[in-house]
Inverse folding.
């Protein structure tokens, strides 16, 4: 790559060019024993694969060759960025292992196993000395991460000796394939190259790499590419992506705020051991490279230093790219800084720095034609107006508009290759590392000061801590909440005696979160009510996540500074277990239904025993046993051990209680998934798997086969696709079948289901089968947007579903819902009239009451029909956390409808009671349907005189 064509200032990077212009130089380094030469083949191929001369920088247009050190081509057979070549995960690992075996500058650590048992690793690259003393550097960072352990003088001394770890991660999203290829070349370059920029990086920074954050999805996507993508041409695409990435989720592995997925949890565990001050996640969604700088709405809890650091690095990158003559690099105007749930946020949540790129690219390795919008057409993004993902995907054009944050947009038509993607990604990352290598001490100092500030602000700010009171009805949700906080490294203690604070008196054993701790900001972010800073701004993901509300658990925010001095026993274990209690020795037990999600697990673990549920509460001695509680007889030893293990509460009964009760039969459950939208189904599957609830995952193939009632009692249709039409007709057929099947050649396909043709959906034929299922006595449960399906296709004839106005905007706020039918089994375990629920942008439901629509409305509105089990009061007053714009639009809209149909029934949730791994408080509304599916009754309508409020 010649520099002559560009008007670029000639300084640091010129040295790279000069050094490599001598085709042979002796290495200065003792660890690269061989002679460094230039890889002429690389240079020629890369020039050929780069579609435009301004799509490459002098940082990456060459590659050194070192005898004895394997380059990616030596192991993979081709250079990184070769057209039509994608690398399977095993080969990626093979490359890093070969590199590590050949160089003392590389070390690989195992951090766990993926869902499908692939090795999860982190690859460290640095100078010989950095890698030799890696554990020492880890200790330094751990000390800076917890300033309570060191004096300011010691901190200065540590900063002088320490090196920042800069973590890079690719392949979180399996269809964003480029970065995982690029990182191999980067690792090699960092080991092999002798140039001022790389030498400074190697000397001053320790680079750590997640080669592929979702390796299961990587392999499936690579299979899919070789099966279909590789032969696609413009206008001739299959129109379908691979049905699964990871076992459960697609993009949501970047929204897994509670680190439910094992790949995410493993990385978090690693993070808390190594404390890299910077975590940089590499994605592909924007043109040509977007570098995150933390735009509004911003979470005000995070340190102002961070908000200075983010644009500083992004702007440095933007300027460097411009200097290299590469267009299309921009910042701002895409992802905002509100939700703390993105994976790399683990860094900023722990006083480090989240970084993110979105690089132009696709799901495969074909060169594609890009047609960017007319730069004169307008449509740029205003300050802080973060667009939604769909608008961005559809509106590439606006990325051709010049803005203050996009001084040099890419425009026009051109080809874009995988190597172009590599060039941009690698140039960006080397530039970020260059910056870090020039200011390593500033980065370390900032990390230390942010950690110190977190402790100090915790002491100074209004909120001094949180109390999670002991003695709550259901302590299993408290156990989970505590464990989720512990997972993120947040310190808690248990009060050694009763605690008296301005906010109230709390029993001994209550969990105390004091804010004078390094992760005090994170504790507040997770536990507080989200007060959205500016309702006119959009946000890229959820507006609310308040853990207490999501769990429907009592968590008290405390301003009283005395909380900082409450004597506690620190919770030292990573996971606590609060054992259940069993009073008496049986043989007849009442297991109280206090709303624990573990009730369903208990039933399943004791599936061979007779279990009944009481339909009303009753007294047993001092104890009140609520409706829904289980009466279990037989095998007292097992009952006792399960109840204790599952954290439940049981008492012995002398005899069966004299209240109405029913057998808790276990239904045969199916969960229906389209082929086109498996992720939200995946979250429900995940919850069912975690609570040991068995089900069959079924697709259109099974539905069309018919006779569903013979096989299933309950079919759950999780939210998916957005509309009823999408649910029914799913992926468009473009004239040829698209098969998803395992074969010798594609062994990662056909997992979690197989299909000869994933297109076409269940069709009207499938709808008819669902109707037969319900009419024959089946229970159909639809969640979120799947509830359009029974409403619009007539399975729930009395229910209609509308959409909110375009002005309505509800990015996952937590709102109040009012229970209208507390007697319904769905609410067993719920003891309050109103509950906090996540609002999920499902349908606005109405239930026809049979009144003549041409009559005038009665003066006193009729009572809500019995089929409406729960509704949203609506209005701003009932938004408990986050943002809902136009909250009046949902006023008194049903949240859950239970409508009989034929011998069966359809239960429609307007919301999603099983959202990600988050709204645990709502899970039981779904689990209760499963447990009591054949004991649901519909009472006669209430007389008009008992009219409820309008
Ligand atoms: Zn992505």
């Amino acid at each position: 790559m010649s520099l002559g064509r560009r008007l670029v200032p000639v300084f640091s990077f010129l040295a790279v060019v000069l050094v490599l212009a001598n085709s042979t130089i002796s290495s200065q380094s003792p660890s690269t024993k061989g002679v460094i030469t230039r890889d002429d083949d690389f240079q020629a191929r890369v020039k050929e694969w780069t579609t435009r001369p301004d799509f490459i920088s002098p940082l990456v247009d060459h590659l050194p060759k070192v005898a004895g050190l394997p380059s990616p081509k030596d192991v993979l057979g081709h250079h990184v960025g070769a057209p039509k070549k994608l690398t399977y995960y095993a080969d990626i690992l093979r490359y890093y292992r070969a590199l590590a075996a050949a160089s003392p500058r590389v070390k690989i650590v195992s951090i766990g196993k993926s869902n499908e048992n692939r090795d999860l690793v982190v690859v460290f690259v640095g100078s010989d000395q950095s890698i030799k003393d890696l554990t020492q550097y880890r200790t330094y960072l751990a000390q800076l991460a917890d300033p309570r352990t060191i004096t300011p003088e010691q901190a200065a001394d540590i900063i002088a000796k320490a090196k920042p770890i800069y973590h890079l991660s690719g392949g979180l999203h399996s269809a964003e394939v480029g970065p995982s290829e690029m990182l191999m070349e980067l690792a090699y370059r960092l080991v092999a190259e002798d140039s001022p920029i790389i030498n400074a990086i190697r000397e001053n920074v320790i680079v750590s790499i997640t080669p592929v954050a979702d390796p299961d999805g990587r392999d499936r996507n690579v299979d899919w590419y070789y099966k279909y993508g590789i032969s696609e041409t413009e206008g001739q695409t299959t129109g379908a992506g691979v049905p699964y990435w990871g076992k459960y989720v697609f993009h949501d592995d970047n929204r897994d705020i509670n680190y439910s997925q094992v790949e995410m949890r493993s990385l978090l565990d690693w993070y808390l051991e190594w404390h890299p001050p910077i975590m940089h996640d590499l994605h592909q969604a924007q043109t040509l490279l977007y570098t995150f700088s933390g735009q509004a709405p911003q979470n005000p809890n995070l340190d102002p230093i961070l908000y200075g650091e983010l644009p500083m690095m992004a702007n440095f990158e933007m300027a460097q790219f411009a200097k290299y003559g590469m267009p299309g690099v921009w910042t701002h105007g895409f992802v905002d800084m509100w939700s703390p749930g993105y994976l790399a946020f683990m860094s900023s949540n722990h006083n480090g720095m989240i970084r993110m790129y979105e690089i132009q690219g696709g799901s495969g390795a074909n060169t594609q034609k890009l047609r960017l919008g007319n730069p004169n057409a307008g449509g740029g993004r205003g300050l802080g107006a973060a667009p939604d993902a769909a608008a961005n995907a559809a509106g590439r054009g606006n990325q051709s508009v010049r803005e203050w944050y996009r001084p040099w947009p890419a425009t026009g038509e051109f080809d874009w290759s995988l190597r172009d993607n590599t060039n941009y990604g690698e140039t960006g990352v080397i530039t970020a590392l260059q910056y870090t290598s020039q200011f390593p001490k500033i980065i370390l100092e900032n990390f230390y000061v942010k950690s110190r500030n977190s402790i100090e602000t915790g002491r100074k700010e209004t909120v001094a801590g949180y109390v999670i009171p002991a003695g709550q009805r259901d302590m299993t949700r408290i156990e989970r909440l505590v464990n989720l906080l512990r997972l993120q490294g947040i310190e808690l203690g248990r009060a050694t005696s009763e605690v008296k604070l301005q906010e109230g008196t709390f029993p001994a054993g209550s969990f105390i979160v004091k804010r004078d701790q390094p992760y005090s900001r994170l504790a507040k972010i997770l536990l507080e009510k989200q007060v959205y800073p500016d309702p006119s701004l959009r946000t890229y993901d959820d507006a609310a996540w308040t853990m207490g509300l999501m769990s429907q658990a009592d968590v008290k925010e405390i301003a009283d500074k005395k909380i900082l001095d409450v004597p506690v026993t620190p919770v030292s274990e990573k996971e606590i277990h609060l054992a259940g209690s069993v009073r008496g020795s049986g043989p007849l037990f009442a297991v109280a239904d206090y709303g624990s999600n573990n009730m369903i697990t208990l039933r399943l673990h004791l599936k061979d025993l007779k279990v009944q549920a009481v339909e009303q509460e009753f007294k047993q001695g001092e104890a009140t046993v609520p409706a829904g509680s289980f009466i279990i007889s037989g095998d007292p030893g097992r009952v006792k051990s399960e109840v204790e293990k599952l954290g439940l509460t049981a008492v012995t009964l002398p005899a069966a209680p004299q209240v109405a009760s029913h057998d808790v039969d276990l239904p045969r459950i199916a969960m229906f998934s389209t082929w086109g939208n498996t992720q939200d189904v995946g979250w429900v599957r995940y919850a069912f798997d975690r609570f040991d609830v068995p089900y069959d995952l079924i697709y259109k193939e099974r539905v069309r086969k018919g006779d569903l009632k013979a096989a299933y009692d309950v079919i759950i249709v999780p939210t998916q696709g957005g509309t009823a039409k999408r649910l029914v007709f799913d992926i468009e057929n473009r004239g040829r079948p698209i098969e998803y099947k395992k074969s010798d050649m594609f062994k990662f396909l056909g997992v979690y289901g197989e299909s000869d043709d994933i297109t076409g959906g269940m069709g009207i034929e499938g709808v008819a089968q669902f109707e037969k299922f319900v009419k024959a006595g089946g229970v159909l449960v639809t969640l979120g947007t799947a509830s359009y399906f029974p409403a619009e296709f007539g399975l729930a004839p009395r229910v209609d579903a509308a959409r909110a106005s375009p002005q309505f905007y509800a990015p996952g706020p937590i709102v109040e819902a009012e229970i209208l039918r507390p007697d319904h089994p769905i609410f067993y375990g719920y003891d309050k009239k109103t509950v906090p629920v996540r609002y999920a942008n499902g349908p606005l439901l109405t239930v026809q009451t049979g009144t003549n629509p041409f009559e005038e409305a009665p003066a006193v509105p009729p009572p809500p029909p019995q089929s409406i089990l729960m509704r949203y009061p609506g209005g701003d007053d009932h938004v408990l956390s986050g943002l809902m714009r136009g909250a009046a639009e949902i006023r008194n809209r049903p949240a859950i409808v239970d409508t009989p149909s034929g011998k069966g029934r359809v239960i429609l949730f307007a919301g999603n009671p099983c959202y990600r791994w988050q709204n645990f408080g709502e899970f039981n509304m779904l689990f209760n349907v499963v447990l009591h599916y054949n004991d649901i009754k519909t009472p006669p309508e209430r007389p008009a005189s008992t009219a409820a409020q309008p």
